Amino acid sequence: MKKSRYSLVFAVLLFGLSGGVSADPVWQSNSAFLLHGSGYEVDTDEQSTLTLEHVSGWSFGDLFAFVDLTQYHGSDQGDGVYGEFSPRLSLGKISEKDLSIGFIKDILLASTFEFGKGDVESFLIGPGFDLALPGFNYFQLNIFHRFTKNNRDGETIQITPVWGMNFPLGDSTLIFEGYIDWNVNSDDSYQSNIHVNPRLKYDLEKILHLPSGKSMLGVEYSYWKNKYGIKDSSAFDTDQSALSLFFSYQF
After folding, report:
1. What DSSP assignment string belongs to 202-229?
2. Is 244 helix (H, G, I), strand (E, B) or coil?
3. Number of domains into which the chain is organized
4. What is the pTM (predicted TM-score) of this model?
5. Domain containing residue 89
6. For 188-237, what is each residue's pLDDT tens digit?
7. Domain with 226 in it: what CATH number?
8. Given 30, 61, 91, 198, which residue has the most CB atoms within 10 angstroms?
């Protein structure tokens, strides 16, 4: 896919298919995460990461974006930079029609642009679905066709569910959220891989005397089979099982 086609698709995703789109988000949240953990593969075992995260809802869809700044402990490879920019267009909001059916609340055109240091640049596009599932605050299912720079990984299909739910815990709240990236097809140079990344967050509102949702303490687990599409072997372990602690603050 040529860069001109990337630009055209993102112009549509950002500004909608017609005029009259609100210039301001209906709601938004910005957070910073400080995370430290070990058990990582391919890169160094121990890592510290500063993550800047944005999520917002618009009159024509929603947007999720983040940037990871990672320090690889015990390595001279330098710091890592990786980010994703993921706008989605709501076909229901744009058409002003109710597209709900069964568990499906809305149908969207979903996309993601992945970027970072080195040869890291991918574009993903496909259908997205907002689902109404019991117990969940939100549940999204996106099915992407994944294009990589210079066709590095071939053209693969990626299935990405995203979820979040709350539980009362004492005088505060425990939040369970996360995502799964499942690249379902592979070839000799890029193996099928699945990355499962759940988080548990505890709201520190009572301890720090801050408004609800402002500060969180949590744990994040990262399981990644055939990380980066590299086949796991006895010579090179790429099946990751990493546990990290983090503190986050919403601003």
Report:
1. EE-HHHHT--TTSEEEEEEEEEEETGGG
2. strand
3. 1
4. 0.88
5. 3-250
6. 788 999 999 999 999 998 888 888 889 999 999 999 999 999 999 999 99
7. 2.40.230.20
8. 61
